[in-house]
Structure formats: structure tokens, C-alpha cells
Amino acid sequence: FAPADYQQGEGYRIMYLHVPAAIWSMGIYAAMAVAAFTGLVWQMKMASLAVAAMAPVGAVYTFIALVTGAAWGKPMWGTWWVWDARLTSELVLLFLYAGVIALWHAFDDRKMAGRAAGILVLVGVVNL
């Protein structure tokens, strides 16, 4: 029951969905990095399964953050997309999630798939 913003009008309410989605998208990737590190260092099988399970969920949250951000940006900035560092970083995060999902399904050997996906996750941590 928040009143309309004096500058943004009713459109600012999309931030109630956008900001938590962006936080979850990065938080899930950080959890994936911990699981990938655990799987690569201590060879725990459940760690690579956790990475594979978290990747689609993180991709959905990242997609929601990108779409709601674009929907907010159109009336505020006059354009759907600007190549700002934050927006581009979130887009790269979506590509990293897609890459992890693709790598997981590219190998028949789950141990090799977990190792490859874990390496990609750890390389992608620099994006956070």
C-alpha cells in the first residue's frame, strides 16, 4: 500500500520484484561457486549435483531480473536497454548459467560434466 512515487509514478513497484530477483540470481551463483569449489577440491559427488540443480533456478531469477529491469528502464530512461556495467554483468550471468546447464548436459560421464561445469562456475565468479 505504498503511495505512488512523485517521479516514477506507479512504475516503481516493479522494483519489488526486480531487486529480490537480482539478489537471488547473484546469491545462487555464489552458492554454486561454493558447491563447485567443494566438488573440485574434495571430490564430493553431491556438490556437482547441487551445481546442476541450482543452475536452472538461478537462470530463471536472472531472466526475471533482466526482464523486469528492462520494463522499468523503458519509461524511466526511454529505452529498453543501455550497455551499463550492471546490466551487462547480469546478462553475462545469464549466459554463465546457460553455459553451466549446457556443459552439464554435454557430457555422458557425470563426473566429467560436474568437473567442467564447476570450472566454468569458478571462472564466472569474477562476474559477481
From TrEMBL:
State the compartments where it is located: Cell inner membrane; Membrane
User: Where are the bilayer-spanning segments?
Assistant: 21-42, 49-71, 91-107
The residue stretches assigned to a coiled coil in this entry are none
The record's listing under Pfam families reads: Cytochrom_C_asm (PF01578)
By its UniProt entry, which NCBIfam families does this protein fall under? ccmC
| Job description of the protein | Required for the export of heme to the periplasm for the biogenesis of c-type cytochromes.
Which family does the similarity line name? Belongs to the CcmC/CycZ/HelC family.
The identity of this protein, by name, is Heme exporter protein C
Q: From which organism does this entry originate?
A: Salmonella enterica subsp. enterica serovar Altona
Name of the gene: ccmC
